[in-house]
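Feature request, filed as a ticket because there's no other form

It would be nice if the structure record came with a short human-readable summary line next to the tokens. Right now we just get the raw output. Example of a typical job, pasted below so the devs can see what we mean:
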Amino acid sequence: MGYGKDIVDARRWSLLTLLVVGAFLAFFELSKQVTAVEKLCPFGEDPFDATSSFGLQLGMLCASIALVRAFRAGGSDRLALRACVVALLSVGTSSIADLLGLLRYPGAWARDIRGWTLAACVLVLATLALGLWWQLTRQYIRFSYMMGGMGFPAGPLAWGLATLGLLGMLAYPPRWNANLAGELLSVVLGMGFLFGLVALLAFSRPLPVSGAPIDLLDDLSALLPPLRCWERHLRRGVWPLVVLLGLIGGGMLVVVEAMGEGFIAAADLPEVAALYVGCELMGAAMGFLLLGDYLYLVDRARQPT
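Raw output as currently delivered:
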């Protein structure tokens, strides 16, 4: 497959992935904002909702990375396709979590035609996202079941997180969400299911990358030239950067929650902030640990010692 065709493929797939993530965003907002639909959604509570929330964030982030890498001059087309893979799997895994919620609580939706429409939409999203992922990867690789040969040292962690998340969705007592500790645990289970399953599926069909890949810091430095002055420092302190991104994401979620609810009582602010910021920090760390190498976010060989 020629280099020129790879660029065309990367651009086409990045735009298609953006449309899929956009469709999932529309569905996510519909299930949250429309009261008639929200009442029928058994997946509106954690751990199901946590999977969808983090899946949406991961999908939007990776769709953006794919666009940057596919369309900027000198970008890496194969790494753009890898970002498409993670974005599609984020939507697919989130839809699987929604389907598990529907299967666990059929009484919430099965008696209403709108509930069946809701279930059909979830099934279509899951089929679309996972079908596109399969079609994308089959163009470049042959399926392999050998995790050990894929450079995936975090494989056992991914298996553990995905398994615990699945068990939580099937058996987690809803009453545990009544307190902060139980709610946090359900969020962690949903988050673990997302990142664990996405990582397992992504590494099960890895897209080969030839030559010297360009990492995300190279992409950002090309788009934002002032970052070049800080590139060496950013490479030296990757984990502080991950923590900073988690803090920013958590802070933004607190603001969004305040806007959505109209206000947050001063007495509840520390609890809400701790929940959102803590969850975003865990999500950022978990995502970087499991998917950082696959997405080639930072070239470890170029990190200053």
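Something like this underneath would help us a lot:
The chain has two domains: 1-211, 217-304.
Residues 1-211 form one domain.
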